[in-house]
Amino acid sequence: MDLSPSGLSLPSPSRRSLLRGAGGAALLAGAGIPLLSACGGSGTASDPKTVSLGSNASDAVPKKAFAEIYAAYKKQSGITVDVNTKDHNTFQEQINSYLQGTPDDVFNWFAGYRMQFFAAKGLASPIDDVWAKIGDNFPDAMKKLSKGADGKYYFVPLYTYPWAIFYRKSVFQQHGYQVPTTWDQLVALCKQMKKDGLVPIAFGDKDAWPAMGTFDQINFRLNGYDFHVELMGGKASWTDAKVKAVFDHWSELLPYHQDGFMGRTWQDAAQTLVSKKAGMYLLGSFVAQQFTNKADLDDLDFFAFPEINSAYGQDTVEAPTDGFMVSKAPKNKAGVTKLLEFLGTPAAEAIYLKADSSVVAASSKADTSSYTPLQKKAYDMISGAKSLTQFMDRDSRPDFTSTVMQPGLQKFLQNPKGVDSLLSSIERQKKTIFASS
Question: Keywords of this protein's UniProt record, alphabetized (predicted)?
């Protein structure tokens, strides 16, 4: 759920570069943009009974779920988790300057490349001591996602969730729709839904990150997992014919996307699925958070993005993993270690999952007996995948995805015919960004 910039206009690189660098803090404050800062602030003496935590969980469901974990931890340990919650998008935009300033002891973040990026910059503390205690709770795939490039652990995973195409079972039953397993079947279904008066694919890209999920699905279905990794890592060229083929396929789907997407958040788009005005929605399973009525939630289902290239089938699943990291110089190191040891237990995951049934546990020892049918299906989809990706915004450099890819994809969505010059521009900017430290 990498939620990024807000606003109807395209985010400009100049504004984003301010957000990226620590030096932009004064400029931003002068512009009236609220800055991320720690609960205690600079120079606050350490309280052994308090750990400060920077949270991006501003949506109601995860915010409540995390609060219940921290309440349980205080009851067990006597240590208070002082939570500093910021708007999800703001947190993502300002994370770099936040970590270079006086951050909280612990902060919510993401596994994989996004974690490794800040670890390599020295903006996070290694937590091998924590993993010595919690290691047996996690499968090898989660251990790999939690390590920095130096082989040390920097991350404690809490939950994961798949990206897929969500739909209402009753809508499919009413119209006699079949779940598509190939690209041609997906396009044919979109055409039929449009004839039937439905919005075929709900879509909101006001915050600029949802489109990245569509790109990923088409890319690894068409070109495979390895090409996805090479492209996100700056090794493959954006002017490669393989990339152009992704946009050619996407152009074929665009007429079936919901209109007005630049002014719509993912939550607003989800309401179109809730109200049965849209037939499908490509998003992470957190979309279930918007289904507040039990009957509606029970009617929600999903399927894997259809096959495009038989060489890769449907063997890759996008399954972002969320959890916790420790800032470079936590004030209460002993308290931080104890908290992370607790957060790495199946018990902590069970508390979270009881309040948020839209995700599944990262631990292989978590109790899955209370999983809803949707969670069980998500768990099976993730555990059965040949390869797992973490989402474009997490599988690549954050400065590249925020300053180049988010506005770039929005330009494509508004002008699909200008893709050649767009890809040349992306490649030029990629070379510059990936050449920097």
Answer: Transport
